[in-house]
Design a protein that fits this description.
Length: 125
């Protein structure tokens, strides 16, 4: 599934699924893996955190340039706790983002949607 090179409405549908459990947990995991890859640049990890986020986004089908942009925005603009969660999820390739509260999931989804819109080249939007 390519999250950031499709239409904004497709991406937003994936964001809406993040608060649900059960059959949509795969969409949640994909979104979080992408987000996790871009937001794990905090703390001592520095470039390793950023690289893990970018790799997770790439594994989810995001273009490398878009993943780098989103990762940088995450480092600069994301809540530190959410960023740390993203880094952990990207490094461990697990569902650890599922443990975020509903409010944190909504904040994360909103951040990812806005970052994706600002990072995806205009010709792909």
């Amino acid at each position: 599934m390519v999250i950031c090179s499709g239409h904004a409405s497709d991406f937003m549908e994936n964001v809406r699924m993040t608060g649900r459990k059960g059959k949509n947990s795969m969409a949640l995991r994909s979104l979080f893996l992408v987000a996790f890859a871009s937001l794990s640049l905090a703390g001592c990890g520095g470039n390793r955190d950023r690289d893990a986020i970018i790799q997770a986004f790439s594994d989810a089908g995001m273009e490398p340039e878009t993943g780098e942009c989103v990762a940088d925005k995450a480092k600069d603009d994301m809540d530190p706790k959410l960023y740390d969660a993203l880094v952990e999820a990207a490094k461990s390739n697990d569902d650890s983002l599922d443990t975020l509260s509903t409010e944190q999931q909504e904040e994360f989804g909103k951040f990812m949607f806005e970052a994706a819109l600002s990072c995806v080249p205009l010709e792909l939007q």
